[in-house]
Amino acid sequence: GRAVELLTEVGLPDPELMYHQYPFRLSGGQRQRVMIAMALALEPTILIADEPTTALDVTTQAQILELIRDIQRRKGMSVMFITHDFGVVAEIADSVVVMEKGHIVEQGSARQVLKSPGHPYTRRLIAAVPHLTGEDRVPLETADKAPILKVEGLMKTYRSGSSLFSAQRVVPAVNEVSFDLAPGRTLGVVGESGSGKSSLGRLLIKLLDSDGGGILFEGRDIAKLSEAEFRPLRPRVQMIFQDPFASLNPRSTIGHILTVGPVAHGTPYAQARDEAKALLAHV
Fold first, then answer.
1. Same domain flag for 271 and 203
2. How far apart are CA 260 and CA 275, in angstroms?
3. What's the DSSP call for residue 272?
């Protein structure tokens, strides 16, 4: 019916199947397309898009921007695009309003604001947009040159549905991945939405069990460790998750969220509380 038509309109593959899926089974880009379909359901004259591309990779971001432009052209809608990213503004906006602390500090055509910003705040925002330098960063000096993390042939395959009637869906998320991470260095893992980046991260901190391969942390293969065996090492390998809305427990205070992990690993509560306050000031 109408819902399947909307899923088709926003470019989701196999809309009939998508209609029956739960959100956790969709990639970030697919979930954003569903959100756009929700907004289109009542045929609006004005579409307000609140940071719709923030958590998406650059390829998926470009696809979502093109989708919004295409829908706007076909339906003749007006769009208000809320974003902190001037790269996105340059792609999609005809005119721009810049806000700081609740006030409009600058407005004009996109070309005017981007090429000749008049307000210091606008100039700071534009200067903060990352640019490729073509040069390597100066590495930190470390005494140990051996890799602190060595990944060898790591594999993970997702399976869903029943294989009884050949309806099982098999997705090889991580396939024979190998790399080294040196002490004090930064390794960039780049790929489109659904390319396996987040699955790789979850495998490395053992939120997922691997199907094969090794994860050598300081020479010890942690891939084969049970949760009880890995628990003493867990404080040493931590992850910043992609979605803070889904990662933070809405029933807990920030103080409790920051102290529950250290306390569970033996840190006295008073010390954990003081360290949490210092961390909040640091970030």
1. no
2. 12
3. H
Same domain, 155 and 218: yes
Flag whether pLDDT at 204 surpasses 80: yes
Task: Tell whether pTM > 0.70.
Answer: no
Judge if 253 and 235 occupy the same domain. no
Cα–Cα distance for residue pair 216/271, rounded to 1 Å: 32
Q: Residue 205 is part of which domain span?
A: 149-243
Domain count, the chain: 3
In angstroms, the Cα distances linking 5 to 14, 19, 77, 271 are 11, 10, 18, 56
